[in-house]
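Retry 2 of 3 after timeout on previous attempt. Resubmitting structure tokens to design endpoint.
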């Protein structure tokens, strides 16, 4: 288990020793800094979980240190407990203004310090659990915006590759097995799909029943990256995985997949029960690619095909009339058959 890293900053050695003696704990890894400059330097090389910071120090005082730490992405989320010489309301308010998480008055009481430190550590663990949960709901870029701005504005993204898939015969089969067994089966499949997506720089957007939707391109700053190739490679691995896995309920699944690439709008939908979703013609066409695919096949739109046609072999299909769109050219990926 990784130890909780705590930095103690005080210009008086006796105060550092006193605080360190109180916090002697097998779960803590303690570091020390005798002034503000040293504290800032240490924070550049070590990722601390908590800082105990003396307010009044020569040259660079605690307020300056806190302001500098809170203005840097690397250190802005580290909770800081100020150690204050006496109960001075103006100093306490100033500490909170620059980002303090808590404060304690000198001379430091051992029980009070332990409680305040443990409270901040518990809050950190709680926040990490929350962001782990958010990772299962929102794309990485949305989480980053949420942490930085407390909001996720809708935005337009270009060159986003979208995958839709569903399992053949799922609806009919679902009525023949126990609900818990069916959920366990889907959970196993989708968990492995999520891992495949991560390996290929893609991510899941959502699932609806047996339908699985994923994208590549929402979080990438490299404009030259072939997001369509990312999603195709993921689709191939998904197909191989499903073909070779041992089912938990003795069922050999087949899957149809559709892929399209283009511009989308992404944003959070809902207030109380919210989710991140993407919208636009590109998404609608991707859904149609899945609709007009067949079990065991990966069906690409012409836009997606043009972005990876030199990388794989394809089967050009006859023109298909798609309601509301008209005739569309589609291509089956032949990779799985080679």
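Retry 2 succeeded. Sequence:
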């Amino acid at each position: 288990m990784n130890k909780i890293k705590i930095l103690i900053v005080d210009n008086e050695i006796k105060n550092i020793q006193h605080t360190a003696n109180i916090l002697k704990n097998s779960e803590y890894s303690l570091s020390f800094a005798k002034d503000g400059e040293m504290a800032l330097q240490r924070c550049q090389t070590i990722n601390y979980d908590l800082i105990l910071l003396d307010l009044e120090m020569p040259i660079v005082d605690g307020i300056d240190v806190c302001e500098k730490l809170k203005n840097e992405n690397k250190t802005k989320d580290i909770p800081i407990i100020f150690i204050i010489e006496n109960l001075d309301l103006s100093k306490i308010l100033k500490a909170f203004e620059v980002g303090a998480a808590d404060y304690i008055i000198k001379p430091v009481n051992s029980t009070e310090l332990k409680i305040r430190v443990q409270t901040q550590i518990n809050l950190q663990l709680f926040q990490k659990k929350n962001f782990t949960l958010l990772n299962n709901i929102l794309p990485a870029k949305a989480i980053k915006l949420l942490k930085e701005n407390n909001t996720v504005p809708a935005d337009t993204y270009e060159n986003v590759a979208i995958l839709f898939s569903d399992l053949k015969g799922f609806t009919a089969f679902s009525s023949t097995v126990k609900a818990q067994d069916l959920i366990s089966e889907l959970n196993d499949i989708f968990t492995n799909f999520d891992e495949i997506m991560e390996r290929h720089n893609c991510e899941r957007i959502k699932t609806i029943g047996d339908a699985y939707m994923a994208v590549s391109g929402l979080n990438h700053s490299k404009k030259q990256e072939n997001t369509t190739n990312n999603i195709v490679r993921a689709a191939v691995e998904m197909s191989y995985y499903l073909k070779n896995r041992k089912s938990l309920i003795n069922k050999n699944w087949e899957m149809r997949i559709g892929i399209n690439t283009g511009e989308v709008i992404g944003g959070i939908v809902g207030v109380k029960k919210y989710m991140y979703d993407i919208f636009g013609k590109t998404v609608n066409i991707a859904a149609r690619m899945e609709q007009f695919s067949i079990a065991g096949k990966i069906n690409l739109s012409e836009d997606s095909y043009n972005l990876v046609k030199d990388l794989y072999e394809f089967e050009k299909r006859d023109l298909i009339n798609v309601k509301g769109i008209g005739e569309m050219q589609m291509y089956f990926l032949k990779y799985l058959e080679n």
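Attempt log closed. Residues 4-135 form a domain with the Rossmann fold fold (CATH 3.40.50.2300).
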